[in-house]
Amino acid sequence: xxxxxxxxxxxxxxxxxxxxxxxxxxxxxxxxxxxxxxxxxxxxxxxxxxxxxxxxxxxxxxxxxxxxxxxxxxxxxxxxxxxxxxxxxxxxxxxxxxxxxxxxxxxxxxxxxxxxxxxxxxxxxxxxxxxxxxxxxxxxxxxxxxxxxxxxxxxxxxxxxxxxxxxxxxxxxxxxxxxxxxxxxxxxxxxxxxxxxxxxxxxxxxxxxxxxxxxxxxxxxxxxxxxxxxxxxxxxxxxxxxxxxxxxxxxxxxxxxxxxxxxxxxxxxxxxxxxxxxxxxxxxxxxxxxxxxxxxxxxxxxxxxxxxxxxxxxxxxxx
Length: 319
Ligand SMILES: NC(=O)c1ccc[n+]([C@@H]2O[C@H](COP(=O)([O-])OP(=O)(O)OC[C@H]3O[C@@H](n4cnc5c(N)ncnc54)[C@H](O)[C@@H]3O)[C@@H](O)[C@H]2O)c1
Description:
The protein is an alpha/beta fold. The strands form four sheets. A seven-stranded parallel β-sheet has the order 3-2-1-4-5-6-11, sandwiched between helices. α5 crosses α9. The longest helix is centred in the N-terminal third of the chain and has 22 residues. The protein is globular, with a radius of gyration of 19 Å. The site of nicotinamide-adenine-dinucleotide has 28 residues, from α1, α3 and β5.
C-alpha cells in the first residue's frame, strides 16, 4: 500500500509511555517516524516492536542539545512526567522543558514545520477554580519542589506562543490530564499503577485520607487520537487545549474496580492525606470538543483491562 501523504514526523520522548503509543499510531497512519529519546525514563522495550519497521528510526539524543534533521512535523513530548522522576534532577527537568522547547522550536522555524507541545494540567498548579478552563492562568508556586516541572512547562508554553507571534510558527499546545495504559511506569507513584501493582502482588491497596477524593483518568488511545486531531486541526487553532477524560471516580471506586478486574483480595488500607492533595481533579474539555470534535470514548473498566495485562506480564518478567 502506498501513502501519498506520508509525512516525516519527529517524536521527542518517543520511547516513553505516551511517545511509544504515538509512534505506533503515526506508523499505522502511514508516516515516517523519527523517534528521539535520551532514555531517562523511557525504555527500548517500549519501542522494540517498531525497530524492524523500515519507516521507523530511533536516535539517542537529549533535547537540551540542538538537533539537525529534516522533518515536516514535530511532537515534543520529551520530559519526565511524574514527581518521582522529575524531582531526581530538577535542574535537568527545567532544562529539558525550556532548552528542549527552544531547540525544537528553532528546528521547526528552520524547517517551517508544524510543532506540538505536550504540556500539562500542572500549569494550573493548585487551582482556585474547578474544573479549569484554558483561560484560567493558574496558581503555581515558583520555588517549590514541583516548580521545575510546572514552571518549566509554563515557560515552554510561553516560548511556543512567542515563536508563533514573532516568527509565525504553526504551534499546537495540549494540556494533558492524568492518562493511563500499557507501558506506563510501574514505580512512578501514580495511583493507577500503584493500585494495579499492589493488587497483583496481593499487597494492601493504599488509600490516602478517607478515599473519597476524586480523579479522572484518560485511556492512552483516546489521548493519542486527540493529539493527532489537534495536529491536523486548522493552523488558526493553536490551543492551549485541555485533554483528559472528565469521568470522575473516587479513589475507593478505583481501588474496587482494580480489585475486581485483577481478582485480587488485597485489603484497602488508609493513610494520612498529604497536605497538598486536591479533592477533585477533572478536565474541562469543551474546547477540544468544539474545536476538533474530540472526546474520550474508552470507559475506565475497559481501558484498565489491557493496562492490567501489561503489568501482569511485566511482573512475571521480573520474578
Ligand atoms: N502521562 C501523563 O498522564 C501526562 C500528563 C501530563 C503531561 N504529560 C506530558 O507528556 C509527555 C510524555 O509523558 P509520559 O507519561 O509519556 O512520560 P515518560 O517519562 O514515559 O516519557 C517521557 C520521555 O521523554 C524522555 N526524555 C526525558 N528527558 C529527555 C531529554 N532531555 N531528551 C530526550 N528525551 C528525554 C524520557 O526518556 C521518556 O522516554 C511529557 O512531556 C509529560 O510532561 C504526560
